[in-house]
Write a structure and sequence with these properties.
By secondary structure, the chain is mainly alpha-helical. It has helices at about 1-10, 15-20, 30-35. The protein has one domain (about 1-35). It is built from three helices and no strands. The relative contact order is 0.18.
Length: about 35
Amino acid sequence: MDGGMSGGFQGRSWEPGLEIEVPFEQRPVCSAHLL
């Protein structure tokens, strides 16, 4: 499940700088556990 979601975001040019601009609410729950 986590791998599938991560792969989808990576395809959308999920960059380190981009995730900072994206609100925590919009970010997937799986990203929270990575931090």
